[in-house]
Amino acid sequence: MRYLKYFILVLPIVIALEAQAQEEDCAFKLREAQQLYDAGRIETIPEMLQACLERGFTQEDRLAAFKLIILCQIYADDLEKAHAGMLSFLKRYPEYELTTTDPVEFRFIFEKYRTRPILDIGAFAGVSLTHGLISQPFTPFNLNNAKPKYTSDGFGFQAGALFNFYASSNIQISLEPMYAQSNFQLVYEQEPIEGIATLDHHEKQSYLYIPLSGTYEFIIGKFRPYARLGFQLGLLFANNTSSSGIFEGPDEDNLENRNQLNYWVFGGGGFKYKLNKSYIFVDLRYNVGLNQYLVSPDKRFTQPNHNWVYMYQDSDFRLNSFMISVGYARSFFNPKRVN
Questions:
Q1: Of all residues in the chain, what percent carry a pLDDT higher than 90?
Q2: Cα distance between residue 107 and residue 317, in whole Å
Q3: CATH code reported for the domain at 119-337
Q4: How far apart are CA 200 and CA 194, in angstroms?
Q5: How far apart, in whole angstroms, are the C-alpha atoms of residue 129 and residue 5?
Q6: Measuring CA to CA, which residue among 290, 163, 179 is closest to residue 231?
Q7: CATH classification of 2-114 is 2.80.10, yes or no?
């Protein structure tokens, strides 16, 4: 039993020493291969370095070895192997970016391949502020004094999934299904029955949003700002109101009086910060409602509690909102020769 303990303690040390020795041996082989390449003796270099590509090189040395092997195959006029080597290189280093020190021959092969991601998958969450835009006001009171407005009633929130499809390195098509909750309230520029009661009307909605948008990304190193334009469908599946005036009542389900399928156009932007095969992002957007929120004008006067108890009538209005979200996405690559 005592020997087993010694074995368990010593084994990791032996493995670490062996790995270090192999690393040093592969580093020596790389230096020797570079000297042979500089002397124009390239025939044995690919075979010399091949074993160390799988195990033995540091990350930096493996990158240099891959490039050296590809250059040897180019100079040996074995373009089939050079292309196979480049494909292996890009599968291991899909986000590699050419540098000014890369030889023109290496650049020539590299540029024949699609190196951008094909898809990003991620998740995000954030907050929103919602307000209404009135096209035709209605109220039980004198409109000259009691001018209604639909304003934000605190923060809503949203959370969802991100699917980014790449049309090019800069242009992406984004699908972002999300759950969202928003809040707004009715206020008056001047209280219509001041001194008698304060009129309050609050609404809370729950949506399934399906936004589809196009983005243009500006590639500036790891920091990548982008602009976005898109169209959004929203399925309203819950709508609760709470109202008070001279009388105060419980929350009510007001879904039947609201359009359950809604439409928006939106614009915005944000930025990504690149990580290894992934990125974090901050997204800002403004949604502009395209349809009236009241399901039909007939419903304006057929809400007895709202009309007579709480002294509330729906105006013709659309809902706009501002959103900010933070998220994380993983990029997926499929390097492919394109010319």
A1: 49
A2: 58
A3: 2.40.160.20
A4: 13
A5: 63
A6: 290
A7: no
